[in-house]
Amino acid sequence: MFSRADNVIPGGTVNSYEELRTAVATNDGLHKTTMDTLKKIQGAGRLGVHVRTEISRNLESHGLGHLPQELPPNQEDVVRLYLLGSRVADIVKAVLSPSDRGDDTLRAIGGSEAEDLVRQIRQLVCG
After folding, report:
1. How far apart are CA 90 and CA 77, in angstroms?
2. Measured in whole angstroms, how far is the alpha carbon of residue 36 from the centre of its chain?
3. Which residues of 59-87 are buried (b: 16+ CB within 10 A; e: fewer)?
4. Under a CB-based contact definition with an 8 Å cutoff, are residues 82 and 121 in contact?
């Protein structure tokens, strides 16, 4: 159901939030990984609600956002990570929290490319 995540950066696998941020930054600001990788980085045994909340907070403290907005409980699930403050983050915000400013952001992307991007983001967010 889910595609295999790209959990490797030059020199090895991702083992810390810092390495995860590097992986996102070197992949044009968007990187996919599994919940299992995030669980291991967090040093957690199970992906309960409190662990997922802590993972989300740690990602944010390292300048990373994630899709879906609510991290899934299954370790095999793939999530997308993006750099907060980036163009990708602006687009995610424009789609998830519609506003006049968000509309301007989406219009600035331009024509059919914008429609395709919005469709892809909605598919990621809504399933």
Report:
1. 24
2. 14
3. beebbbbbbeeebeeeeebbbbbbbbebe
4. no
Helices (H), 8-110: 17-25, 35-42, 49-61, 87-96, 100-109
What digits encode the pLDDT tens for the residues 82-127? 999 998 898 888 888 888 888 887 777 766 566 677 777 777 777 6
Give me the residue label for tokens 């390495």. Answer: 19
Task: Find all residues with CB under 8 Å of 68, minimum gap 6, and list them.
Answer: 79, 124, 125
Residue 121 near residue 93 (C-beta atoms within 8 A):
no
Query: Rounded CA gap, 12 and 28, in Å?
Result: 19
10-29 pLDDT, tens digit each: 445 889 999 999 999 998 89
Tokens encoding 44: 């957690």
Q: Give the global pTM.
A: 0.76
For residue 62, what are its two tokens? 């390292």
Residue 46 DSSP class: S
